[in-house]
Every structure is written in structure tokens, then in C-alpha cells.
Amino acid sequence: MKDNRPIIVITMGDPTGVGPEVAVKALSLREIYSICRPVIIGDVDVIRQICRITKLNLQINPIDKVKEEKYQYGTLNVLDMNNVDIKKLVYKRVSKMAGKASLDYIYKAIDLAMDKKIQAVVTGPIHKRAINLAGCPYAGHTEILAERTNTRDYAMMLVEGNFRVVHVSTHVSLRQACELVKRDRVLTVIRLANDAMKGLGIENPCIAVSGLNPHASDEGLFGDEEEKEIIPAIDMVKKEGIQVDGPIPPDSVFVKLRGGKYDVSVAMYHDQGHIPTKFLSWMWDEKSQRWTAMSGVNATLGLPIIRTSVDHGVAYGKAGEGRANPQSLIEAIKLAVEFAKRKS
Hints:
Oligomer: single chain
Strand order of the largest sheet: 3-4-2-1-5-14-13-6-7-10-8-9
Shape: globular
Number of strands: 14
Strand content: 15-25%
Largest sheet: 12 strands, mixed
Structural class: alpha/beta
Distance between the termini: 18 Å
């Protein structure tokens, strides 16, 4: 019988961080294999070491290309890039070797997706300084993905359950973020958000657009970006039949989104969208005095491929200790599968 489960590759991220550990832990769950055919792109020696650290009794199947492997629970298919010297690997430490390795995983995953050999890419966390040491000028995955896929119009979407936020700008200074609030960019992001919701099966999405200024400028009292840039973009997409409200004051739009009035919100800059999403997805355990879960997901919209990611960094404080929580990666895999199922 034909196996309709999508093939999903998971890049293990920076080898010195928690990426390899959360990948192994996520794929130790039977439920993941019930919805997809997962492959880790990384280094077999690192995965073996992580299995020992976490005491997970999993069979490791090294492969050199993605094909009809045994996609069964209990077996980790690892596309071995063989680019980490395990004797030189030190957890919790930035290194050029780890940066280059994490870039190689990403490039391989993108190429496989572009060649349609897999259905989606799920990325583990990378370290900005490490990839810079390896010669990459970008701050993170999003710009790498856009360049490798030759994509001009793209946006970051954060997801925590039904709480979804798409960003007009991300990794820039606050001053520059204000300058990037332009009609054409807001217009593009609203359209990307609309397409993404339809990609998740929401036929007629309801989109909230945040203002940039306090009280969405209160009719020009606190700035003019709403009147000059945001409102004209909203008016244009309304003529296209997109259901959108705004600009809504930033201090109330996310309350309405959480309450279910909207399917997705457009945030004007990085922290405006990240703070409410991470507030909902991070969980603090009072007893252990530790963060026990981070369930948010990062997705890149506008690409010709499906890409989701964990919504956390390399977490050096936990790396190599066996106590990293895989929930964000689990949710990222599930979201990638949802997109892939509806795209096929």
C-alpha cells in the first residue's frame, strides 16, 4: 500500500546546543511516526551521543540519501552529513565547526525540498554568532531560506495553538522597524497571512492588523504611520475580498486574537508579535524553578517550500545535560505535516 505520510526532514541545528537532543526526544514519540516519515539531517556521531545522554533506546539508521527507508517507530533515520568531529565537540560553546555544520544541514534540507524529494523542512535552533564565524552574514534561518529559494516576499509567522502572528519586520533595530512600516510591505504581509490560513484549511480567514503607535496613533495624535501606510494597505486588500480589521491598538489586538475573534494578526515589528506569543507558550515550573516547556512554533511564509521551526534558541544552559524540552519541535513537526497534507 502507498504510504501517504509526508516525508519531513528535521535539521538538528547547532550541534553544541539542544537541537540534537530535542530532535531525538521528539522522534522517540510514537505519535510522530503516525503522522509523518521523519528524517534527521545531522551527524550520526552526535545523535549517538545524545541517545546515550538521554538514555533513549533507539536504533540509529545512517543514510546517505532520502529514499524509501524503514520509517518506523523506534528507528531514527539520520541523513549523515559527517561534518562534526565528535572529539572536538564541546556543548554550550560557540564554534566555527558547529556553525558550518548547522548551515550544511539547512542547505541540504532546502535542496531536498526544492527538488521535491521531501514534503517539508523543520529546523532546529542555530546560533547567530556560530554561523557568522562560518561565513554566513545573516542573523538566522529566514534570510538563508529566502536567498536559497530565491524568494523576495516572505514573512515570519509565530504560532501557539490558534494564536498566530505574522510580522512586517523582524531582526532589525526598533528605529529601522518603524521605517519599514510601508504600505507595500504591510499589503504583502496581509496577503501572506491570508494564504497561510487558507493553507491550514481556513476558507475565509479573519485577519487583525495591529497599529504601530500607541492607540494606533489615536487619529494622528501619536504618529502618522497608520494613516499614511497601514490604512491604505488595509483598504486595498479589502477590495481583494480579504476579511481584515485594523489598525487595532497594539495593546488590545492580541487579547482579541487570543479570544478567537481573529484567525491571525499582523504585527508591525519583532517584539510586538514575539512578546505575546512567548508569554503564552513558555511555561514556568514553580517547584523546580525552571522553564519546563516552550511550545511555540516559527513558520516562514511565502517560500516555495514548507518550513517550520522551534521558537527557541540553542539554550546553552541545558545543552548536553539531557533535560531539554522537545515540545516546540513536536508542535513544529505537527504544523509542517498540517501544511503538507493540505498542499498535496
